[in-house]
Amino acid sequence: MRKIDLVYMWVDGNDKNWQKEKSKYLIAEGGVENLPTDSVVEARWRDNDELKYALRSAEKYVPWINHIYIVTGFNQVPEWLNAKHPKITIVSHDTIMPECAIPTFNSTSIEMCIANIPGLSEYFLLSNDDMFFNRPLTPDFFFDSKNRAILRYNKRHKKIKNIGFDLETVNGDYQQILLLSQYKIYATFHKKVYKYIHSHGIDPYIKSNIKNVLAHPLLEHEIKNLTNYKFRHACQIHRLIFDLYGIIHGTTVPQRCHCIKQTHNKLWNKIYNTVHRRSLQNSPCYCTDVTVANLYTNNPPIVCINDTVMTTEDMRVNNKKWLNWKFPKKSSFEK
Predict the structure, then answer these.
(1) How far, in Å, CA of 267 to CA of 286, rounded?
(2) Which band of pLDDT confidence, cut at 50, 70 and 90, is reported for residue 295?
């Protein structure tokens, strides 16, 4: 049986020393007005104790995980974490990233260096700290019988006709770096893969795929330079490029997924959710408020509770209440 590791990215945005360093580098960038809003909103780094519940979910629902790596910087370690647990390793940014990229406040840059984690297995799952296993899952949910990674994707509704125009007009820096990553695959390998968009869940990766992308002569230099960005920029390349490389080389299998419709049009919600009910059963759920996503009754395999600029204090209270309800038992990873 293949070994599958689990990698979390985590930061304590409440750390005063971290806040001081971030402010210093923001000034060097010319202030927040010179960066995309999504890159500098405080919610990106706010710590709501999600990692504690993420680890509880991992121990409860995927106990077969071989080892867990927590990637962080600034010598941060969660105060509640048993860092001496034999299944846990804290990985500092400066262990996996070039010296010129340190310090970093950029998850996109960190993701480009994940394969440099010492001891990381060939097969692994990559997760943010706000993502949770929501029911028992087996390894074949993430890797098929041929050891291919399964990419659960949402389909881009807009057909790409003019890549230059779309790169300039796409809404949001996150969508732009996804599109740029797709374009890089086309420019390098002459394969059109524009329809694939991450489902925003816990994703499987094959380390050798990542290494091959980072070593490619047409991509290596550019990716290394972009890794030096302290904050996320719209010109960066996203880890989606690793999935797309796997698809065109036969080591990743795309699987269409759908998000539960929770709009004000109840009839449309019912029709859509009925038509796609089979896909919905195996699709990650992405939400900002668990009550809107109806997570007390719905049972998706993976849940992402995204903290955004739109997240209110009531939403945070609702989300924390659900986490305590769903994962009340302390894990062995806690002191």
Answers:
(1) 21
(2) confident
Predicted confidence (pLDDT) per residue in 255-273, tens digit = 988 777 666 677 877 787 7
In the CATH hierarchy, which fold is given to the domain comprising 4-326? Spore Coat Polysaccharide Biosynthesis Protein SpsA; Chain A (3.90.550)
pLDDT at 202 over 60: yes
For 252, the enclosing helix (H) or strand (E) is strand 252-256
Taking each helix axis from N to C end, the angle separating 240-248 and 207-215, rounded to the nearest 10 degrees, works out to 100
Strand order in the sheet with 252-256: 196-198, 149-155, 252-256
Please check whether residue 84 is in contact with residue 164, taking contact to mean a CB–CB distance below 8 angstroms. no
Higher pLDDT, 55 or 293: 55
- pTM recorded for the entire structure: 0.91
pLDDT confidence bin for 323, thresholds 50/70/90: very high
Domain spans of the chain? 4-326
Q: Please tell me what DSSP assigns to residue 259.
A: P
Contact criterion met (CB below 8 Å) for 69 and 321? no
Report yes or no: 6 and 133 within 8 Å, Cβ to Cβ.
Answer: no
Report the 10 Å Cβ neighbour count for 103: 16
CA distances from 64 to 55, 137, 254, 327 (A): 13, 10, 24, 18
DSSP state for residue 154 in the 8-state scheme: E
Q: Are 229 and 25 in contact (CB under 8 A)?
A: no
